Design the sequence.
């Protein structure tokens, strides 16, 4: 009796090993998607979905004996009234379900973004295979075209776009907005969602893509754009500047000094004064290297450094204020000041500010302190053209 | 009467009891998710408050067991309330053990169905898991207690590792503003966390009788509860710090936060670890619950061993867990709301009242009782 029970239990346990086969998907049957683009369709109630599917057999062959007309990817497009419907419609072309865990980027065209993203976002958050770390972008033109701009050094356009966004820190002229970051801003009562802008640039016969600037949303609808400097103005405040180039006039204004941002730290403290004014105390600490100069002056002198540091701070303040002024025109709190105030002044937020935040946002005052330091001049202590300057 | 004959003859020591309680409390780590709906970013406070509320309640369980060393709660009920009323109250315990095991089995089914193998029928998971628990229970209490050290050590290590891997993206301002949750929601959340992870350890009233030194149990149980609570606190803090205001939208906050691990684009997709750990922890908790169910049914039926009824009970439990909820939404709603009605009297009051009556009636009458 005991032995029989053990045998039955053993058989049942061994059967459990087969459960994995129920969800088994063979590699040859996978349509691995690396990027998804969403455009508006001819029918206003539908969207056009482009899925960039990896052509595994062509991967690694381009330029080395493979068929020159064959691409290592296939942009499978279809229309549907919802994202999920469109994704399933694609099976009419692919024969297999799309496999999306490796989807690195989700790109919406600007016209879709202007109509509102919520209804086209839910699927990506809900689907078990999707990752919250995928980037979200807004295409100037068609999202499908962006996904078809074959880069020179990368085989898959979507992976190229992912790398471009991932390396935003080199300039801090865009921001890597993930699905998680976007949905967090969308849920917030005050903070406006943002997403990097991408466009196709025609370079001779080649099409390249360029990512710079940010799209600004009110709730889920795109309403405005930030240029590169305004974008960095936002990043200073939310402590997301990684590196970048600061071009600063020299004290004698005979040229410019070019700095590489080495480290940047941004801190914000909100204050509501007794008379009800809202002041944001912004404290930026910045360290930079002198990377280039276009003047023959010897800049590596303490008194010149002082002036250059002041000029650098001035540039940072200008960038922050230009971002604020742009966003205050539409009342879009891109910095998340509302949430900061909510966290510190919970009662006042609910009683006095929450309802009219959009208008109150336009009246915020600033106290910006930038502590800039030049830490090195790299390999030169004097410019090679010093004698030209006398 | 069978009040002197315990169906379990194995003995466990107090250190094993400590790890058993810790592992048992950790087994409800998925539950933090239900509390988030009510207390949002203040869930960590609700966990702390629940530990404080649970300590006296659980102390009442230990005090009852210590008063009747070597006996399980079914035997104690017979002594305190008499054979008829005692059996009726024991049925309430059995009803609770049966339902709680089915809920835990269902938790595993939903975990696999939603996150790991969406295409496989859930009944396979329910059956496989229940049979695995039955196998563990079949081996007896001692082997289960012996693996408790390993289970707690593995879960603690993995939870700590996940916490460290996520520390880079944690934003501790997500906990602000403090006290932004209505008091009633906070109390509701504290109740759910107190009742499920902590007070479900009422199942140990079937285990305390097997302790080699019952009189020392209190200290080890309370420390087990606190260390298990610490893991729940770690999970609540981690999920809020990582997910912020999105915390309330996800089906499983632990899965979503772990899915965000991205160390150099190499160390990613760690969510399977959450699945593995949840499976191990719920296996441990569910096995103890199944053990409590099997021994309590055997005890009330006057059987010498619980083994003959183990597989039939497991089969009933599989069917119960397959039909108990229609969907995870149903599951969450029932856990958050219905639990108040069916489990609260048992968890918060019944052992305490039993203890009180025992004290008033000066039970147990004879000190000559041998610990069987």
Sequence:
């Amino acid at each position: 009796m005991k032995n029989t029970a053990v045998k039955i239990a053993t058989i049942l346990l061994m059967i459990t090993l087969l459960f994995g086969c129920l969800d088994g998907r063979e590699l040859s049957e996978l349509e691995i998607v690396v990027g998804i683009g969403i455009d508006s369709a001819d029918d206003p109630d539908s969207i056009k979905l482009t899925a960039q599917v990896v052509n595994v057999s062509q991967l690694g062959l381009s330029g080395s004996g493979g068929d020159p007309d064959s691409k290592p990817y296939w942009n499978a497009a279809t229309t549907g009234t919802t994202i999920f419907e469109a994704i399933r419609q694609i099976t009419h072309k692919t024969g297999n379900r799309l496999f999306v865990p490796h989807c690195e980027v989700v790109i919406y065209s600007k016209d879709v973004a202007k109509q509102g993203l919520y209804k086209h976002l839910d699927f990506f958050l809900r689907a078990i295979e999707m990752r919250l770390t995928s980037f979200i972008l807004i295409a100037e033109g068609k999202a499908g075209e962006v996904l078809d701009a074959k880069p020179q050094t990368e085989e898959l356009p979507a992976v190229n776009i992912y790398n471009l966004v991932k390396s935003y820190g080199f300039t801090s002229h865009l921001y890597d907005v993930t699905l998680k970051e976007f949905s967090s801003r969308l849920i917030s009562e005050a903070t406006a969602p943002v997403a990097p802008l991408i466009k196709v640039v025609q370079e001779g016969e080649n099409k390249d893509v360029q990512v710079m600037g940010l799209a600004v949303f009110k709730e889920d609808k795109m309403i405005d754009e930030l240029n590169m400097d305004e974008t960095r103005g936002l990043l200073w405040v939310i402590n997301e500047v990684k590196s970048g180039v600061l071009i600063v006039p020299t004290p004698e204004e005979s040229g410019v000094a070019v700095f590489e941002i080495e480290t940047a730290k941004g801190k914000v403290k909100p204050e509501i004064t007794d008379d009800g004014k809202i002041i944001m105390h912004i404290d930026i600490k910045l360290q930079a290297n002198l990377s280039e100069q276009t003047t023959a002056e010897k800049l590596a002198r303490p008194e010149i450094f002082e002036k250059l540091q002041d000029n650098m701070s001035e540039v940072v303040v200008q960038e922050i204020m230009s971002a604020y002024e742009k966003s205050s025109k539409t009342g879009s709190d891109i910095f998340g000041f509302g949430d900061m105030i909510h966290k510190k002044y919970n009662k006042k937020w609910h009683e006095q500010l929450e309802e009219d935040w959009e208008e109150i946002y336009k009246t915020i005052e600033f106290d910006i302190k930038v502590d800039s330091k030049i830490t090195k001049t790299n390999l030169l202590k004097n410019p090679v053209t010093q004698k030209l300057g006398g | 009467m069978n009040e002197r004959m315990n169906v379990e003859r194995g003995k466990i020591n107090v250190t094993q009891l400590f790890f058993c309680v810790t592992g048992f409390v950790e087994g409800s780590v998925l539950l933090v998710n239900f509390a988030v709906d009510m207390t949002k970013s203040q869930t960590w406070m609700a966990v702390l408050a629940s530990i404080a509320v649970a300590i006296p309640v659980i102390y009442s369980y230990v005090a009852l067991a210590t008063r009747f060393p070597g006996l399980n709660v079914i035997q104690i009920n017979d002594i305190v309330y008499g054979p008829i009323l005692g059996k009726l109250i024991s049925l309430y315990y059995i009803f609770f053990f049966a339902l709680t095991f089915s809920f835990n089995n269902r938790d595993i089914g939903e975990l696999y169905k939603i996150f790991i193998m969406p295409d496989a029928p859930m009944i396979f998971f329910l059956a496989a898991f229940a049979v695995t628990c039955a196998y563990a229970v079949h081996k007896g209490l001692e082997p289960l207690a012996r693996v408790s050290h390993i289970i707690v050590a593995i879960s603690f290590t993995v939870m700590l590792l996940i916490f460290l891997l996520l520390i880079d993206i944690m934003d501790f301002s997500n906990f602000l503003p403090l006290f932004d949750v209505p008091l009633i929601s906070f109390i509701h959340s504290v109740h759910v966390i107190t009742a499920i992870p902590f007070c479900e350890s009422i199942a140990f009233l079937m285990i305390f009788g097997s302790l080699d030194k019952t009189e020392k149990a209190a200290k080890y149980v309370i420390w087990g509860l606190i260390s298990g609570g610490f893991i729940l606190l770690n999970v609540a803090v981690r999920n809020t710090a990582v997910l912020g205001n999105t915390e309330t939208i996800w089906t499983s906050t632990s899965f979503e936060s772990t899915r965000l691990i991205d160390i150099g684009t190499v160390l990613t997709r760690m969510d399977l670890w959450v699945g593995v750990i949840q499976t191990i922890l719920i296996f441990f908790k569910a096995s103890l619950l199944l053990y409590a169910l099997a021994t309590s049914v055997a005890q009330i039926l006057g059987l010498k061993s619980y083994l003959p009824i183990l597989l039939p009970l497991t089969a009933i439990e599989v069917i119960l867990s397959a039909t108990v909820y229609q969907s995870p939404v149903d599951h969450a709603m029932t856990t958050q709301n219905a639990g108040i009605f069916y489990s609260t009297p048992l968890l918060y009051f019944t052992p305490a009242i039993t203890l009180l009556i025992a004290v008033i009636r000066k039970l147990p009458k004879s000190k000559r009782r041998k610990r069987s």
Q: What stands out?
A: Chain B has one domain: 2-360. The mean pLDDT of chain B is 88. Chain B has 14 helices and two strands.
